[in-house]
Specification:
This protein has 296 residues and is α/β, with parallel strands linked by helices. It has helices at 2-6, 23-35, 49-53, 58-61, 89-96, 110-116, 119-135, 154-162, 242-250, 259-266, and strands at residues 10-16, 39-44, 64-68, 103-108, 140-148, 166-172, 180-187, 193-202, 208-213.
């Protein structure tokens, strides 16, 4: 599934922590975007430009456009390219400028931006920038953000994750230090949500090698739910016992005629009509004359 994520679009989020750095996986995303012919605009706050270029092929490095926020992040030397509180739709659009190629925007890291800008502003820009850029003639194919999950409150991390179409959370492998674990959550346009856990390694030139989907140690295996018996806990019986069946057969049905009524109906009486009434057990029979009070 990681290979599919590398070539996907939309808002992509890589979440790492102090025990497992996501920079190598981020470079795998850069290499995949460069091979697709994208122009890669990087807002680098965490590490300098030369460290991001290190280990990349010249063809990939040639497609990188840096907007340096590392050299003077707080503008103490009056040399800041990106101000600390920078992340509105208009400012980000002006920063990228004109570019005829499809654009991949990389935020390295989104944590720096969240720590220096209002969370609502960051979430609004992260969600709507692709649409805003398209309205101004810029084709932003994907936005890739690196988020250090252990630097923020869980509610903030959850808010940002809700805006991403793909979330990749990296953790160290429990059994092999050479491997890492990627937990992938992908929201497709069909509203289908896919989840997968894979072991992976980053090879030379930041080629990603997936070792397939694996189950983490200690995680309970999913067992098929036992089929529930719909009649197991009913408060009534669906079937009759033999005694109940015999009692049912002896019970006269209300629409069956008695022998007296049947014989009377079969006899023909010229000019004579009779009405037979058999009160039901539930009838409320009133013996009083209903017209008795008319003589008063």
């Amino acid at each position: 599934m990681l290979a599919e994520v590398l070539s996907g679009g939309g808002n992509q989020l890589i979440i790492d922590n102090v025990s497992c750095c996501g920079q190598s996986l981020l470079k795998c995303f850069l290499v995949a975007a460069a091979h697709e012919g994208d122009s890669i605009h990087i807002l680098n706050f965490d590490i300098p430009e030369d460290e991001l270029r290190a280990g990349l092929d010249p063809e990939v490095a040639a497609r990188l456009v840096f907007h340096d926020g590392f050299r003077d992040p707080l503008n103490w030397n009056r040399e800041a390219v990106l101000p600390a509180s920078f992340f509105t739709l208009q400012d980000l659009r002006m920063c990228i400028g004109a570019d005829a190629s499809p654009v991949t925007l990389v935020l390295d890291s989104l944590s720096w931006i969240l720590l220096h800008s209002p969370v609502t502003t960051v979430c609004h820009t992260f969600q709507h920038f692709q649409r805003h850029a398209k309205s101004t003639g810029l084709n932003v194919k994907r936005i890739i953000g690196l988020l250090h999950g252990d630097l923020h409150e869980p509610a903030i991390v959850a808010s940002v994750c809700c805006l991403a179409s793909t979330v990749v959370t990296v953790t160290p492998a429990p059994s092999d230090e050479a491997l890492a674990v990627a937990t992938v959550l992908q929201r497709r346009k069909s509203r289908k949500i896919l989840r997968a856990t894979e072991y992976f390694t980053v090879l030379e030139r930041f080629a990603l090698k997936s070792h397939g989907q694996h189950q983490l140690a200690g995680e309970m295996e999913e067992r098929p739910a036992a089929e529930a018996d719909p009649v197991a806990n009913l408060t009534f019986n669906l079937h009759l016992s033999e005694e109940e069946r015999r009692a049912k057969e002896k019970l006269p049905l209300p629409y069956h005629l008695s022998a007296e009524l049947k014989s009377a109906l079969l006899q023909s009486h010229a000019g004579v009509a009779k009405i037979y009434y058999e009160p039901d057990a539930a009838d409320d029979v009133d013996e009083e004359d209903p017209d008795d009070d008319l003589d008063v």
